[in-house]
């Protein structure tokens, strides 16, 4: 087991900086997810941790040992790639044992390890097949198995499930989680799928343009996004964003956007806010609740409803502000009618209109 | 795509299309005849006796079918002073061909592998130079190479001609393999690095076994080119290693006495047999190599 510490990492391709001045510490046995949109540098960073891409600045430490220039094979890592990257001319058994054979480990041990990994991943009946004779899910298991037999301290996953269909993805996601429970090794997992990130991670690092925007537990990343980008990147259906001003009136504080007026006195601001500051209000659809006769209800004009299975996403206009919100199937919310809601202000987010950072 | 294609061919053809087809096939047929005609003439002539050849009916079938000309071409036709037929040249050609083909392909594969996976500093410049090399007419190199071999003392020997073939085959072989390898996923290579494989291990255990389809293409190209080579063999191989093509030329161009057209024809067909066989045999392997999924993981 190992902790990982990245200090002031810079990575560039030619003259193009991809990862900039990045600091990140991953605890021993932690499951860290790197989450971010396509092209933000997640794979690049992961490759650098694995020693497959050279950093142009900064240092990488495993357990306080500087491994910045250590060869990939000596880092004690196992890596699973997005494209599986199985050796196509070798059988599953050979794929699993390739690294061990190179390391010159004796036959009996190799056999034992291959057996252990293949049973754990339920691929023991496929050992004689070539990768081309496997399904996508089976290939991915073999790829994971290849990382497992190496007795790695650190596992690196680069979007291992993105080529699979939704059902298989959910299945394998669960298995990876179980695997982490069993092995208790450090895992770094790259994805752009927020569900994967939220379900698997101990902590999530949300990246954009090679910079970590927020590093926190899934709950905090979801509930208290550090900036507008994180707020809108996570959550489906997406967060509502409304531009407006904060106005203090006596003890109370209001959010005002045109005719729209919301009492936000109960919102826990992290700092003192001067009056009439320009802000963006971030409201998740599930934090706008059917009023059920509450006194603080505001009326919305429903313009569209989208049934989503377990509940319904409604689009309504409140005093000129259009918001999406979730309603139950029994709430009789129909288009072109009015519908009363209450807004859970404590769970809302306010961002500075200029910088986008959380207030 | 294939579905759409078969759908169009399954549909009954219209009147116009039928005539279109007939036209196309007629055209192709005429072309094929045109190209096959010399071969036909060669074959029928080679099975005639000289008496029959003298009649000058080059398109007629042999009256008396005889393989004497073939036997003579192989065992006793005169190539200059010696009269031992083509068999010596055949042996020489094989001796030149096998190491030249194997080594030039290995070297091309190795070059392509290094260029596409190891990203050596200045790899692109190197590659550009190699490509440029393949555009320089090779007559330009002959004299410097002669001097070079003479200085190193291997001029006119088997190593000299093999090295020459390797050098001249390298640009194309490198290009061929580099292009093939650049289509392979880089992650495969990364996975092997993490598994602890080094430069040679990755090459021999992973990359080379995946290269079967392109290697077959390379074999076809190199066998044809090296077997058909005349100039390099004449210049570099030396008296004892003259390849079949050079000896064929000697047989055909002997000026003393009557020209034995039947022997010349037989000798020519014999000489072209190897490239022909390679095409026929390896074509099937080639298709099989692709179909067996050697390319896709
Ligand atoms: N070999 C390369 N040469 C030049 N630029 C590259 C190279 N590889 C990646 N990049 C660039 O680096 C940036 C980050 O790429 P990276 O593969 O790390 O993205 P990612 O976050 O993993 O995206 P995805 O989710 O699509 O996999 C991209 O803008 C990409 O264009
Ligand atoms: Mg990626």
Describe the overall structure.
The complex is a heterodimer of chains A (359) and B (297). In chain A, the strands form four sheets. Chain A has a six-stranded mixed sheet, with helices on both faces. In chain A, strands 13-12-11-14-20 form a five-stranded antiparallel sheet. Chain A has a five-stranded antiparallel sheet with strand order 15-19-16-17-18, with no helix packed on it. With 359 residues, chain A is an alpha+beta fold. Chain A is 23% helix and 35% strand. Chain A has eight helices and 20 strands. Chain A is elongated, with a radius of gyration of 25 Å. With 297 residues, chain B is mainly alpha-helical. The radius of gyration of chain B is 24 Å and the shape is flat. Chain B has 14 helices and no strands. In chain B, helix 5 (87-117) runs antiparallel to helix 13 (244-252). Chains A and B meet through strand 6 and helix 2 of A and helix 9 and helix 10 of B.
What's a concise summary of this model?
The complex is a heterodimer of chains A (359) and B (297). Chain A is an alpha+beta fold and 359 residues long.
Q: Rg of chain B, please?
A: 24 Å
* Regions with little confidence, pLDDT below 50 for 5+ residues of chain B: 1-7, 292-297
CATH class of the largest domain in chain A: Alpha Beta
CATH-assigned homologous superfamily of the largest domain in chain A = P-loop containing nucleotide triphosphate hydrolases
Number of helices of chain B: 14
Mean pLDDT of chain A: 90
Task: Compile the SSE list and pairings.
The complex is a heterodimer of chains A (359) and B (297).
Chain A: E1 4-13, E2 16-26, E3 31-35, H1 42-50, E4 57-62, E5 65-66, E6 77-80, H2 92-102, H3 107-120, H4 136-148, E7 154-158, H5 166-183, E8 186-191, H6 194-200, E9 203-208, E10 211-216, H7 218-223, H8 228-233, E11 240-249, E12 252-257, E13 260-263, E14 277-283, E15 288-290, E16 298-307, E17 312-318, E18 321-327, E19 338-343, E20 349-352
Parallel strand pairs in A: 3-8, 3-9, 6-7, 7-8
Antiparallel strand pairs in A: 1-2, 1-4, 4-5, 9-10, 11-12, 11-14, 12-13, 14-20, 15-19, 16-17, 16-19, 17-18
Chain B: H1 2-10, H2 15-46, H3 50-54, H4 68-75, H5 87-117, H6 123-135, H7 139-152, H8 158-181, H9 186-194, H10 199-207, H11 212-228, H12 231-236, H13 244-252, H14 261-291
The complex binds adenosine-5'-triphosphate (ATP) and magnesium ion.
């Amino acid at each position: 087991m190992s902790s990982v510490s990245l200090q002031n990492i810079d990575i560039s391709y030619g003259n193009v900086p991809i990862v900039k001045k990045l600091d990140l510490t991953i605890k021993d046995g932690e499951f860290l997810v790197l989450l971010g949109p396509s092209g933000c540098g997640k794979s690049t960073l992961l490759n650098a941790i694995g020693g497959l891409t050279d950093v142009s600045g900064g240092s990488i430490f495993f357990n306080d040992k500087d491994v910045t220039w250590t060869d990939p094979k000596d880092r004690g890592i196992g890596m699973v790639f997005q494209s599986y990257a199985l050796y196509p001319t070798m059988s599953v058994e050979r794929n699993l044992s390739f690294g061990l054979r190179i390391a010159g480990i004796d036959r009996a041990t190799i056999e034992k390890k291959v057996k252990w990994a293949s049973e754990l991943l339920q691929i023991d009946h496929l050992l004689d097949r070539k990768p081309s004779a496997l399904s996508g899910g089976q290939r991915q298991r073999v790829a994971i198995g290849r990382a497992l037999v190496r007795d790695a301290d650190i596992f690196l996953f680069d979007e291992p499930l993105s080529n699979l269909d939704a059902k298989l993805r959910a299945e394998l996601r669960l298995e990876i989680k179980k695997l982490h429970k069993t092995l208790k090794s450090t895992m770094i997992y790259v994805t752009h799928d927020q569900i994967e990130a939220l379900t698997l991670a101990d902590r999530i690092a949300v990246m954009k343009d090679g910079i970590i925007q927020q590093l926190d537990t899934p709950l905090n990343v979801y509930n208290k996004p550090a900036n507008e980008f994180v707020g809108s990147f996570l959550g489906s259906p997406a967060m509502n964003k409304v531009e407006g001003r904060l106005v203090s009136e006596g003890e109370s504080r209001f959010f005002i956007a045109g005719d729209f007026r919301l009492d936000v006195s109960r919102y826990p601001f992290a700092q003192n806010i001067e009056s009439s500051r320009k802000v963006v209000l971030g409201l998740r659809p599930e934090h706008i609740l059917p009023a059920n006769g509450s006194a603080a209800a505001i009326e919305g004009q429903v313009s569209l409803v989208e049934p989503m299975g377990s509940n319904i996403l409604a689009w309504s206009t409140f005093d000129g502000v259009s918001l999406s919100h979730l309603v139950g199937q029994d709430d009789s919310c129909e288009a072109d009618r009015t519908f009363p809601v209450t807004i859970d202000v404590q769970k809302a987010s306010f961002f500075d209109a200029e910088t986008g950072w959380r207030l | 795509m294939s579905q759409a294609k078969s759908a169009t061919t399954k549909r009954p053809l219209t009147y116009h299309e039928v005539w279109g087809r007939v036209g196309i096939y007629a055209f192709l047929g005429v072309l094929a005849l045109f190209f096959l005609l010399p071969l036909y003439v060669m074959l029928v002539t080679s099975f005639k006796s000289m008496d029959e050849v003298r009649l000058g009916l080059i398109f007629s079938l042999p009256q008396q079918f005889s393989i004497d000309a073939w036997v003579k071409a192989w065992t006793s036709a005169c190539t200059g002073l010696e009269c031992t037929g083509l068999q010596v040249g055949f042996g020489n050609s094989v001796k030149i061909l096998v190491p030249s083909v194997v080594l030039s392909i290995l070297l091309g594969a190795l070059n392509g592998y290094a260029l596409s996976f190891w990203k050596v500093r200045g790899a692109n410049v190197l590659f550009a130079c190699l490509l440029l090399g393949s555009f320089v007419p090779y007559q330009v190199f002959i004299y410097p190479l002669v001097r070079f071999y003479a200085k190193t003392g291997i001029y006119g020997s088997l190593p000299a001609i093999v090295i020459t073939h390797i050098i001249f085959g390298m640009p194309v072989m490198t290009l061929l393999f580099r292009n093939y390898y650049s289509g392979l996923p880089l992650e495969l290579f990364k996975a092997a690095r993490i598994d602890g494989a080094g430069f040679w291990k990755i090459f021999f255990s992973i990359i080379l076994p995946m290269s079967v389809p392109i290697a077959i293409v390379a074999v076809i190209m190199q066998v044809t080119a090296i077997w058909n080579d005349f100039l390099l063999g004449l210049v570099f191989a030396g008296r004892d290693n003259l390849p079949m093509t050079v000896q064929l030329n000697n047989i055909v161009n002997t000026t003393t006495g009557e020209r034995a057209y039947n022997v010349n024809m037989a000798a020519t067909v014999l000489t072209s047999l190897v490239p022909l066989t390679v095409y026929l045999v390896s074509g099937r392997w080639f298709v099989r190599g692709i179909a067996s999924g050697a390319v896709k993981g």
